[in-house]
Amino acid sequence: MSRVVTLHEFIMDRQADFPYASGELSRLLSDIAIAAKMVSMDVRRAGLMENILGAEGNTNVQGEEQQKLDVIADKQFINMFRAGGEVCGIASEENDDFMAFESEFSRKGKYVVLFDPLDGSSNIDVNVSIGTIFSVFRRKSEIGSPATLEDMMQSGEEQIAAGYVLYGSSTMLVYTTGKGVNGFTLDPMIGEFCLSHPDMKMPENGRIYAMNEGNINICEGGIKEYIENYCQKTLPGAERPYSGRYIGSLVADFHRNLIKGGIYIYPDTTTDPEGKLRLLYECNPLAFIAEQAGGLATTGRERVLSIQPERLHQRIPFFIGSKQMVEEAMSFLK
Ligand code: P6P
Q1: Lowest mean pLDDT: which of 120-124, 247-251, 253-257?
Q2: What is the enclosing helix (H) or strand (E) of 116?
Q3: What's the gap in Å between 249 CA and the centre of ligand 1?
Q4: Are 308 and 155 in contact (CB under 8 A)?
Q5: Rounded average pLDDT over 158-166
Q6: Count of beta carbons in the 10 Å neighbourhood of residue 288
């Protein structure tokens, strides 16, 4: 029985990967893990706390109805970043504009974090898996000055870390710093994330496709053919066609595909002509993880990580998963 490796030990062991880092990134990742534990506790008892469940009573910049837990999770992460001293500013799905932390202490932070505090929140009240997604950049602005919009608007290739927390049958934290992908499961007995999925690799191919097929007749040409004439056709020699699995929580669908192989597709549609998923704090972090695990993430036409952002809450069409499946799906696009 090999010894349990906690996330904290793993981060410290890997600190040597960053000869110039004096521990700030390690502390930032540890802060994310602490906030994730706190959100996990809130998620797991939401049904018992009527002040947590249900709608907040307003809509966010996305025009989506905010859930109370969205706002609670957003505050947990922001408070952790503000207090930690490594982060000079943030942008999140739940805040219209980016936030430059005011204190002199925070302005010395070297990093900015863009995050979706609780993705899939329409699933909260029905006890279906939800997740947090985060993306870390080194600031471009001068240390000691307030964070700027330019700090937030960097292309995905500039990320120095990215990850997600999955509040599922167990709570997992999966992240990369550009040297592979590792997964940690929260052990509630000791309150620590423990290494459970070392060096994760996404299968080159798979037989699971995740898409809201309710959009099949309103999305860009080629997708309908891919789903109906490829995924739903019994492949020669195969016992049955692909399996459709759509959870309605990007993090849960992505995590399953990372382990089993598969593709997640959210194309542009007549209702979401630019696509639905947000480039900066949903697509970029998962694209970084996908590529680090041997997968692929595109808009259907270009690599996600190469996109130079134009707006903070910019949306893009999103094809992410097993390399061969994403390439296959792209071949159907007109
Ligand atoms: P639809 C959740 O709001 C989310 O951003 C993703 O987590 C999820 O995959 C998608 O949107 C669900 O969108 O339109 O299928 O309900």
Answers
A1: 120-124
A2: strand 111-119
A3: 6
A4: yes
A5: 97
A6: 27
Site to substitute for ligand 1 among 122, 276, 316, 320, most atoms within 8 A of C-beta: 276
Question: Which residue among 69, 93, 115, 119 is best mutated to probe the pocket of ligand 1, counting the most ligand atoms within 8 A of its Cβ?
Answer: 119
Ramachandran bin of 72, using left for φ above 0, alpha for ψ from -120 to 50, beta for the remaining angles: alpha
pLDDT at residue 74 greater than cutoff 90: yes
Under 8 Å between Cβ of 211 and 265: yes
Q: Which two tokens stand for residue 24?
A: 């700030």
Largest CA distance in the chain: 65
Residue 185 one-letter amino acid: T
**C-beta neighbour count of 13 within 10 angstroms:** 11
Q: Which of 93-107, 120-134, 160-174, 254-268 has the lowest mean pLDDT?
A: 120-134
Q: What is the rounded average pLDDT of the residues 208-222?
A: 95
Its CATH architecture, for the domain 7-197, is 2-Layer Sandwich (3.30)
Residue 31 phi/psi, 5-degree rounding, is: -65, -40
Q: How far apart are alpha carbons 250 and 316 in whole angstroms?
A: 14
Q: Where are the domains of the chain?
A: 7-197, 208-330
Q: Please give the CATH architecture assigned to the domain spanning 208-330.
A: 3-Layer(aba) Sandwich (3.40)
- Which tokens is 291 given? 């590529």
pLDDT in tens, 117-150: 999 988 988 999 999 999 999 999 999 999 999 9
pLDDT tens figures, 37-66: 999 999 998 877 766 666 776 767 776 766
Element (H, E) at 135: strand 130-138
Q: Tell me which residue of 265, 304, 310, 313 sits closest to 286, measured CA to CA.
A: 304
**Lining residues, ligand 1, CB within 6 Å:** 119-120, 122, 212, 248-250, 276-277
